Amino acid sequence: MSATKKDAVPRKAGRRVVVVGQGYVGLPLAVGAVEAGHTVVGYDVDAGRIARLRSGDSYVEDVDERRLAKALESGAYRPTTDAAELAGFDVAVVTVPTPLLDDVPDLTCIEEAALTLAAHLRPGALVVLESTTYPGTTEDVFGALLQKESGLCPGADFHLGYSPERIDPGNRRWSLETTPKIVSGVDAESLRRTAEFYDTVVERTVSVRDPKTAELTKLLENTYRHVNIALVNEMAVIARELGVDVWEAIDAASSKPFGFMPFTPGPGVGGHCLPVDPRYLSWRVERELGRRFRFVDLANDVNSQMPHYVVQRLVQALNELQRPANGSRVLLLGLAYKRNTGDARESPAVKVAELLLRTGAHVHAVDPHVRESVPLDTRVRRVELTEDEVAAADAVVLLTAHDDFDYDVVLRGARHVLDCQRRLRPAANVELL
């Protein structure tokens, strides 16, 4: 493995770049490539999303409207749904979703991207897959489709690489540009070309020997987090039953300067990475090796049960207040899966809302960041965080600790708060998860 810094190699900008997918991964890459001096076509099949981009309306926190406007005004960024505009690309990067369908990896979007690009693929071009997936996808699925449809051979006729996305929405310290980028290729020249392109956009690239290694690297990163979050979530449940403050124990353990990295409990896991990505690995292991990936299976079980545990704790609290859950008014703070973002993909808050509705509770929810559609039951009422809303609620559940919530209003007016993020200061009306 080798590492390079952007400033240590010549920057070759000015290429025609296509970024397929203009979501949380693709849009920051497209704008970053424009800022590096490339001409970029941002392709997406979602016409509504493209219309918003063309009007200068960014739906991704990592690209504010000022950056988007500057990219559009430069003439170097063209959002489009027209595949004909992909013609003549030098570099194409695919950043499309890879969801699960009935717990089986769904590579439909990757396959459709390959078919779309194959029609415009020419000798000498570079194609890079960024979507998270199981080892072997780049060569056995994506590259094979490109070859079948174009008649061009990866490595011999065009360059093929894999570089897993490492976007952390809302992270102000580690952006696309500052986070080291894993790069790989199907041969030495493909690796060189892949690293050369990303060296124009990010500060540092880290090369690995082949796409399978890069694909496993991404899954290892997310499985590590998934397993450790599951560990501390189960620890939180056990600690409460033992009468121990798990949060204080985590703080104390964090004082150890080696051998420990703190993770904190919460209402579950969300986004694409943790609820989905480790299952790609466990599916591949079972299919190819005929065995179970037991750590992933256990982590899935623990983390998927956390929304149920949150509701169980809330029902207990309401009982102590002599209020049945049926008919109670519950105010949820946060629908996004992580703080200070509008990303509600696989958010545990959605499951908490659904479970509360099943108890007969009247559910209100606050999240100023979640703008795009979220799969929320229509019986959940979206409201603003006001003194009246807090006072009217029988209980408040803090699920996502956005910085712009007025926590003083919550502390002053709430009858009871279940704080799943340890964001509120200690008070008689506050209970920690």
Structure characterization notes:
With 433 residues, this protein is an alpha/beta fold. Helices cover 40% and strands 15% of the residues. It has 13 helices and 17 strands. The strands form three sheets. A nine-stranded mixed beta sheet has the order 1-11-10-9-8-5-2-3-4, with helices on both faces. Strands 14-13-12-15-16-17 form a six-stranded parallel beta sheet. A two-stranded antiparallel ribbon has the order 6-7. The protein is globular. The relative contact order is 0.09.
Give the CA-based shape: globular
The helix count comes to 13
- In sequence order, what are the helices and strands, one letter per element? EEHEHHEEEEHEHEEHEHHHHEHEEHEHEE
Strand order of the largest sheet: 1-11-10-9-8-5-2-3-4
Report the β-strand fraction as a percent range: 15-25%
Gyration radius, to the nearest Å?
Answer: 23 Å
Structure summary, number of beta strands:
17
Query: Helical content, roughly?
Result: 25-40%
Which regions have little confidence, pLDDT < 50, spanning 5+ residues?
1-12
Mean pLDDT: 93
Characterize the largest beta sheet: strand count, sense, and whether it forms a barrel.
9 strands, mixed
Q: Structural class, please?
A: alpha/beta
